[in-house]
Design goal:
With 253 residues, this protein is mainly α. The chain folds into two domains: 123 residues, no CATH class; 109 residues, Cd81 Antigen, Extracellular Domain, Chain: A. It has eight helices and two strands. A two-stranded antiparallel ribbon has the order 1-2. Helix 1 packs antiparallel against helix 2, helix 2 runs antiparallel to helix 3 and helix 3 runs antiparallel to helix 8. The longest helix is centred in the last third of the chain and has 34 residues. It is elongated, with a radius of gyration of 25 Å. The protein starts with a strand and ends with a helix. It is found in: Cell membrane; Membrane. Keywords: Cell membrane, Disulfide bond, Glycoprotein, Membrane, Transmembrane, Transmembrane helix. It comes from Oncorhynchus mykiss. This is Tetraspanin.
């Protein structure tokens, strides 16, 4: 027998265990996201992003796994509706992002600058900014002078910090011959001329660098979003199919 049978109706074991395996991905991803929030990663605190994302994925995976194994229609419907809401929110976010590109660009600038101000206040935030600047080969939101917003890096005469008129090491251009990162490479660099600065640091801002990356990888980004959307639709269809099978069996009792 392929599943429970009552008067010709049956619950498909194939769909049942396929949806269980499908949800293991969400469950494990949720656990890993929460672990990484404790071990890996202010302004904005990146830990909360990991916790919320991991929590949502964990709950979604739990509902799908238990719902499929226990043939619990409530949990399966919860999984299906919740996944549908997430899909709708993603679709809405995509449309809004395309429609209000300039507004999002301004908000991204505001977001980065707020976090530049809090750079030394939170080690997790500091690591996130350093990672971003190293990955995109950028410095500040629109340029290195954005670091004037930080009390440790600004160029005012009253600033007693040794990092005055400097930038974080993550702004520096890398020397392939150096195995160890020189964390003082950005000291006093903004006191130099614009031409000299280009020798030591990345002078382009992270917002334009991100825009350039999106343009260069538009096909890849679109493919990922379409793939995720199709996976979500597939999960909703599986859950609804299993719910229909279970209700048909129960109606036959």
């Amino acid at each position: 027998m392929s599943g429970k049978q009552f008067k010709g109706h049956e619950v498909s074991c194939c769909i049942k265990y396929f949806i269980f395996g499908f949800n293991i991905i969400f469950w494990v991803s949720g656990v890993l996201s929460n672990i990484s929030s404790i071990t890996d990663l202010g302004g904005f605190d990146p830990v909360w992003l990991f916790l919320v994302t991991g929590g949502v994925m964990f709950i979604l995976g739990f509902a799908g796994c238990i719902g499929a194994l226990r043939e619990n229609t409530f949990l399966l419907k919860f999984f299906s509706v919740f996944l549908g809401i997430i899909f709708f929110l993603e679709l809405t976010a995509g449309v809004l992002a395309f429609t209000f590109k300039d507004w999002i660009k301004d908000q991204l600038n505001f977001f980065i600058n707020n976090n530049i101000r809090a750079y030394r206040d939170d080690i997790d935030l500091q690591n996130l900014i350093d990672f971003t600047q190293e990955y995109w080969d950028c410095c500040g939101a629109f340029g290195a002078d954005d670091w004037n917003l930080n009390i440790y890096f600004n160029c005012t005469d009253t600033n007693p910090s040794r990092e005055k008129c400097g930038v974080p090491f993550s702004c520096c251009t890398k020397d392939p011959a150096e195995d160890v990162i020189n964390t003082q490479c950005g000291y006093d660099v903004r006191a130099k001329t614009d031409v000299e600065q280009k020798t030591y640091i990345h002078v382009k801002g992270c917002v334009p660098q991100f825009e350039k990356w999106l343009q260069d990888n538009l096909t890849l980004v679109a493919g990922i979003f379409i793939g995720v959307a199709l996976l979500q639709i597939f999960g909703i269809c599986l859950a609804q199919n299993l719910v229909s099978d279970i209700e048909a069996v129960r109606a036959s009792w």
